[in-house]
UniProtKB/TrEMBL annotation:
Organism: Orbilia ellipsospora
UniProt name for this protein: Flavin-nucleotide-binding protein
Coiled-coil spans in chain: none
Domain of life: Eukaryota
Lineage: Eukaryota, Fungi, Dikarya, Ascomycota, Pezizomycotina
Length: 267
């Protein structure tokens, strides 16, 4: 069975250095899942308003098919305070034009290295980015809302939801709004490898002798967990230590491996 992919269209097609474009669900979803923060862009609804983009926590899942993995179709769940701007716009949109749901564009980016070349124009970064375009629905059913809150909490740190006071109480549920984004279009773009200098510069011996070129790996790493002022648990739980170590190791390994994987095109 071949991997599922998002159909390439004028909306999600990668034009600049198109050979770096990736459309399979697994790659797109892995980038979003591995990002602590996603940036959500939406139209606030007034001609006098500027376009809005917000940093938010967004996690992928399927309420209808909870066992679905990253290679399958998934929804993107966003959460925020019930009266925040994006939630107000979503509610108003659903009320005014239920047949034309609110649309968003969501972006996630992971930088894996600084790529230093012979000339400023050839400098680049090794990176993985994903952009999704989708339609928004308010989550109103209690069961799905609890599913999303657990998904988001454990998406930040696996196992955390079950190791806290749950379920959220009535006031917490009322103050929190969940949005479900049905992904209509998506794509990823990935750069790996060494610098891509021009042949004319590679022939300049004096330039090669004075200019250091190479890659500085860049990856997310977690520091030592620090207890709060009122913490009474003497030892850091194993699920926290495991996540801190394993996530840092995986990020470092990818950033270092990306140096030897050459991607298409210059820069």
């Amino acid at each position: 069975m071949s991997d599922l992919s998002y159909p390439k269209s004028k909306i999600n097609k990668v034009n600049r250095l198109g050979d770096r474009g990736v459309y399979d669900c697994k790659t797109v979803h892995e980038i979003i899942t591995g990002s602590q923060v996603v940036h959500v862009s939406f139209n606030p609804g007034s001609l006098e308003d500027y376009p809005v983009i917000l940093p938010m926590i967004g996690k992928l899942g399927s309420f209808e098919n909870p066992s679905a993995d990253l290679s399958e179709p998934l929804d993107l769940y966003l959460h925020g305070y019930v009266s925040s701007r994006i939630m107000n716009v979503a509610r108003q949109s659903a009320k005014d034009e239920p047949q034309k749901p609110m649309k968003v564009c969501v972006c996630a980016t992971k930088v894996d290295g600084l790529v230093l070349s012979l000339t400023p124009n050839s400098h680049s970064m090794n990176y993985r980015s994903a952009v999704v375009f989708g339609t928004v629905e308010l989550v109103t059913e209690l069961e799905e809302k609890l599913y999303a809150m657990r998904l988001i909490t454990n998406g930040v740190l696996p196992g955390r939801y079950e190791n806290t006071r749950v379920p959220p109480d009535g006031a917490e549920m009322q103050s929190t709004q969940i949005l479900r984004v049905t992904i209509d279009h998506a794509s990823a773009k990935i750069r790996t490898g060494e610098p891509g200098d021009y042949e004319k510069d590679l022939k300049r011996e004096e330039l090669l002798d004075k200019t250091w070129t190479g890659i500085i790996p860049l990856y997310q790493a977690f520091g030592e967990p620090q207890p709060s002022s009122y913490n009474r648990v003497k030892e850091v739980p194993e699920y926290i230590n495991k996540y801190v170590k394993e996530t840092g190791d995986v990020e470092k390994e990818y950033a270092e491996t990306a140096i030897t994987k050459q991607s298409a095109g210059k820069a």
